[in-house]
């Protein structure tokens, strides 16, 4: 969804699209809350600036303590969006604006309602690990809905436009600069912990998105290929492709049924095949992203 949606009233084609949009914003909201919880309850009390607008806000709060971290996050995101619109263009969607500003607002509300005077535990490693895992899983959920929490993503796009730096490297470079600033503000030890948090954050986000999007590519050789195909199409409501194949050893001609389904449907399919043909030959591969009919829109 582009910025043009602010100015153009777009009618949804039926309730399915509207339901899908509501579902997207529900997941984004869940992700936002997780990011805010990981940040406020675990990372902020230890001054662990692991990049992004939230990490930068923690560092700035050290020098400007009369502004809360939540307020600084809101200011940073607004400023970055304005710069992004002027420099890069209208490539930031409504979902990203909602996620980035919303996360900042939730943190600000936590600061006003649930004041924390000290870390939950004395072990900084526990604070770092729990904070990173909770917030990174939240970020992964937000990213999976084709949104982002703003911050260094926008800086990376600006660097990409003017210097040709890849987006991933731009985000990593920006987060690294923030951890260096944290080192100057809070000392080299906290700076190194923050850098470790940046690395863990990237790993957990990637793992979360892979886990959410994980599907199974299934190829089935069976004498009952027609029945299996009908089960996939009519019961699982998924598509399938039939290939004509010839066995190298027997020379028999058979149909190979190929399909891509989620993990829950794979369990159902395997049980069905087991019930009708225990001699079926099945190969299964993990697929981490599927685009097209019935899955994620290729335009997103």
TrEMBL record:
<keyword id="KW-0472">Membrane</keyword>
<dbReference type="Pfam" id="PF02588">
    <property type="entry name" value="YitT_membrane"/>
</dbReference>
<feature type="domain" description="DUF2179">
    <location>
        <begin position="238"/>
        <end position="292"/>
    </location>
</feature>
<feature type="transmembrane region" description="Helical">
    <location>
        <begin position="25"/>
        <end position="43"/>
    </location>
</feature>
<dbReference type="Pfam" id="PF10035">
    <property type="entry name" value="DUF2179"/>
</dbReference>
<feature type="transmembrane region" description="Helical">
    <location>
        <begin position="96"/>
        <end position="118"/>
    </location>
</feature>
<feature type="transmembrane region" description="Helical">
    <location>
        <begin position="124"/>
        <end position="143"/>
    </location>
</feature>
<keyword id="KW-1003">Cell membrane</keyword>
<keyword id="KW-0812">Transmembrane</keyword>
<protein>
    <submittedName>
        <fullName>YitT family protein</fullName>
    </submittedName>
</protein>
<dbReference type="InterPro" id="IPR051461">
    <property type="entry name" value="UPF0750_membrane"/>
</dbReference>
<dbReference type="InterPro" id="IPR003740">
    <property type="entry name" value="YitT"/>
</dbReference>
<feature type="transmembrane region" description="Helical">
    <location>
        <begin position="63"/>
        <end position="89"/>
    </location>
</feature>
<keyword id="KW-1133">Transmembrane helix</keyword>
<dbReference type="InterPro" id="IPR019264">
    <property type="entry name" value="DUF2179"/>
</dbReference>
<feature type="transmembrane region" description="Helical">
    <location>
        <begin position="163"/>
        <end position="184"/>
    </location>
</feature>
């Amino acid at each position: 969804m582009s910025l043009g949606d602010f100015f153009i009233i777009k009618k949804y084609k039926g309730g399915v699209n509207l339901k899908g949009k509501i579902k997207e914003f529900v997941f984004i909201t869940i992700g936002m809350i997780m990011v805010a919880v990981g940040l406020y309850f675990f990372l902020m009390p230890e001054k662990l600036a692991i990049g992004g607008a939230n990490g930068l806000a923690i560092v700035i709060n050290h020098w400007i303590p009369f502004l809360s971290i939540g307020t600084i996050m809101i200011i940073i995101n607004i400023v970055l969006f304005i710069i992004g619109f002027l420099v890069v263009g209208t490539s930031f969607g409504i979902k990203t604006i909602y996620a980035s500003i919303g996360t900042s607002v939730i943190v600000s509300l936590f600061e006003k309602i649930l004041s924390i005077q000290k870390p939950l535990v004395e072990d900084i490693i526990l604070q770092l690990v729990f904070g990173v895992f909770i917030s990174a899983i939240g970020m992964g959920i937000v990213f999976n809905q084709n949104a982002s929490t703003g911050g260094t993503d926008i800086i990376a796009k600006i660097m990409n436009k003017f210097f040709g730096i890849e987006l991933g490297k731009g985000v990593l470079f920006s987060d690294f600069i923030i951890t260096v600033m944290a080192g100057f503000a809070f000392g080299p030890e906290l700076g190194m912990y923050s850098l470790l948090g940046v690395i863990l954050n990237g790993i957990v986000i990637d793992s979360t998105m892979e886990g959410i999007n994980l599907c199974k590519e299934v190829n089935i050789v069976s004498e009952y290929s027609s029945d299996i195909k009908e089960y996939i199409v009519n019961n699982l409501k998924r598509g399938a492709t039939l290939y004509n194949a010839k066995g190298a050893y027997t020379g028999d001609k058979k149909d190979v049924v190929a399909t891509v389904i989620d993990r829950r449907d794979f369990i159902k399919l395997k049980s069905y095949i087991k019930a009708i043909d225990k001699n079926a030959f099945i190969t299964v591969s993990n697929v981490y992203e599927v685009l097209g009919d019935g899955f994620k829109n290729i335009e997103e």
